[in-house]
């Protein structure tokens, strides 16, 4: 009957008004119309009961921590008063984070929605909506009209985007990793443009090693990668190289490593050709399409006494027609990573080989250098935040010519292709000219009295590189930025030695990092500076 159906429908109820006043919030108020012990925000407690408290169980009550500015209720006890009293303060707190919420203008997000009660009329609809193993929790007005045609640039099958799992013919590209414990889990998908480096432990058995899929090269190469999601175009995973590791850790590169396939083989109490490591290298285009995929393997042997083996997995990405350049931070420098440097042969842009390559690298003499003339070519990269003092000794004889010796020492101190610029950030790109700091060169000459100027010349004996850097951006997460680099070359006068005489002089090189950040003002409560540099791929895939 109609009246019965109407009676079964629930009465519409409006959601309770959300409580956003921190002075009225009290998470320790558990007893109804009674005072909770040590609950300083309980409105049911009287001053006499507050005097019996030993401490405030909840001394601070705040709202949403993501707000830029918010009220905070502070509770404490004045134990020196007689009797002890509760102290209540309402203060303003400023969120120092750059990314914060200015105002909560979406009131519906302040409380939970009341669930829709099932009735005979809406039961089938609710069953269709929530009866499956997975359903959407988004409101109806968030749904997109599926009947409308998608614009070409919004077609999800047209390109890979950052972090999207790389799809294969059967599922996705596996990159085993530890999940809860250190044991390997094969359910970890490799994300597009997400460089990963994982290590995990896998249980093995010599008797079953040829039947464990994860120990076989085919497990990592037999499934082709989809060039773009949900497409029929595939890319085969080729074998780039194979390295064989012996039981004592000795590694040997197979000459016939490319496109070779070695399956696990049981030989007595050993199992050979077991996969110990896999390194994927993916080549992609700027449109998000995968062009090539290669895998480098490390194969080893396990004995009967080995219950488990450690496997390592890596994946890296390179864009087509570009030279990969390792970053030293994103955006600020990370202590211990190389200072990126480069040269500008023309007006624009910088050359592609920066920081991590052998050319145009900011480097110094290694600490193992002893004889300067024997140290030519030996270099140690300048690592951010690491002060260095190294050097070598030069034995000078009367037969040595001054000018060639001076040039040799200059090459020893500066190295080949001394850079002209240093990247101000760890992720500075070659095309961003303003992100590169020119190196300032200074020359200091130690003049010495000589009887005959014709028989003396200047030779370099010291190179001091001073890197000035500053903290940049938010006070919560400051980024290291290089603002000035000075290379000071010190020369000394070399006098002609008599025949048969020799002289030993020390040659030194040093690197000093100086923090020139301005100290924060005392009692600083204003908004932090917005003079920040975001990671270069922060807005990917948007420009």
TrEMBL record:
One GO CC term, this protein: MKS complex
Tectonic-1-3 domain boundaries: 158-320, 329-514
Record's keyword annotation contains Cytoplasm: no
GO biological process: cilium assembly; protein localization to ciliary transition zone
Domain of life: Eukaryota
Tectonic-1-3 N-terminal domain: residues covered: 17-122
InterPro entries membership: TCTN1-3 (IPR040354), TCTN1-3_dom (IPR011677), TCTN1-3_N (IPR057724)
Transmembrane residue ranges: none
Keyword field: Cilium biogenesis/degradation, Glycoprotein, Signal
Family designation: Belongs to the tectonic family.
Subunit structure and binding partners: Part of the tectonic-like complex (also named B9 complex).
The protein's name: TECT1 protein
Organism: Pitta sordida (Hooded pitta)
């Amino acid at each position: 009957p109609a009246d019965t159906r109407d009676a079964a429908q629930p009465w519409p109820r409006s959601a309770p008004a959300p409580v956003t006043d921190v002075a009225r919030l009290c998470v320790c108020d558990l007893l109804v119309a009674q005072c909770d012990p040590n609950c300083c925000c309980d409105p049911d407690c009287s001053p006499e009961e507050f005097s019996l408290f030993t401490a405030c169980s909840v001394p601070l009550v705040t709202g949403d921590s993501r707000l830029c500015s918010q009220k905070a209720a502070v509770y404490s006890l004045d134990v020196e008063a007689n009797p002890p009293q509760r102290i209540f303060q309402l203060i303003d707190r400023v969120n120092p984070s750059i990314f914060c919420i200015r105002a909560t203008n979406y009131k519906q997000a302040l409380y939970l929605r009341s669930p829709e009660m099932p009735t005979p009329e809406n039961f089938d609809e609710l069953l269709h909506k929530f009866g499956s193993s997975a359903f959407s929790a988004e409101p109806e007005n968030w749904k997109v009209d599926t009947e409308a045609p998608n614009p070409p640039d919004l077609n999800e099958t047209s390109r890979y985007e950052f972090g999207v799992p790389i799809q294969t013919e059967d599922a996705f590209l596996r990159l085993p990793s530890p999940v809860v414990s250190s044991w390997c889990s094969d359910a970890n998908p490799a994300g597009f443009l997400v460089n990963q480096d994982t290590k995990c432990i896998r249980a093995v058995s010599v008797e079953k090693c040829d039947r464990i899929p994860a120990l076989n090269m085919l497990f990592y190469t037999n499934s082709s990668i989809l060039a773009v999601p949900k497409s029929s175009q595939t890319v085969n995973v080729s074998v780039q190289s194979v390295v064989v590791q012996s039981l004592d850790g000795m590694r040997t590169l197979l000459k016939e490593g490319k496109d070779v396939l070695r399956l696990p083989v049981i030989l007595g109490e050993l199992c050979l050709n077991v996969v110990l490591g896999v390194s994927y290298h993916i080549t992609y285009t700027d449109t998000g399409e995968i062009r090539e995929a290669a895998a480098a393997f490390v194969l080893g042997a396990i004995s009967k006494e080995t219950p488990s083996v450690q496997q390592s997995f890596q994946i890296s990405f390179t864009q087509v027609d570009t030279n990969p350049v390792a970053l030293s931070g994103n955006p600020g420098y990370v202590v211990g990573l190389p200072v990126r440097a480069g040269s500008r042969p023309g007006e624009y842009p910088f050359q592609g080989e920066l920081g991590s390559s052998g050319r145009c690298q900011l480097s110094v003499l290694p600490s193992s250098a002893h004889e300067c003339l024997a140290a030519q070519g030996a270099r140690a990269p300048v690592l951010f935040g690491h002060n260095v003092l190294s050097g070598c000794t030069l034995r000078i004889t009367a037969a040595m010519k001054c000018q060639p010796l001076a040039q040799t020492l200059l090459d020893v101190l500066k190295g080949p292709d001394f850079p002209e610029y240093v990247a101000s950030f760890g992720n500075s790109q070659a095309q961003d000219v303003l992100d590169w700091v020119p190196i300032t060169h200074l020359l200091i000459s130690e003049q010495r009295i000589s009887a005959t100027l014709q028989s003396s010349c200047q030779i370099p004996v010291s190179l001091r590189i001073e890197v000035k850097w500053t903290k940049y951006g938010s006070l919560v997460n400051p980024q290291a930025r290089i603002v000035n680099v000075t290379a000071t070359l010190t020369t000394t006068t070399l006098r002609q030695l008599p025949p048969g005489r020799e002289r030993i002089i020390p040659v030194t090189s040093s690197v000093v990092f100086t923090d020139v950040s301005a100290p924060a003002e005392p009692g600083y409560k204003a908004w932090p500076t917005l003079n920040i540099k975001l990671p270069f791929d922060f807005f990917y895939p948007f420009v």
